[in-house]
Sequence to fold (69 residues):
Amino acid sequence: MSVTLFGVLAVGFMMTMYALESRGRLYIFLFAVGCVLSSAYGFAIGAWPFGVVEGLWTLIALRRWRVAK
Fold:
């Protein structure tokens, strides 16, 4: 139950930060944090492809954060 709750919160946070990215760099960074949390959730439930893809999204988001004005 607690892993499911963590997953719902992680993915919900990630999606919310993605929706708010246009407001500034902070939200891009927070989206990356959400991706890390979602990746951890994927690995915790044994869905390693999900964990890997979310890990890649983390790298993409961090790059976008770094180059954003």
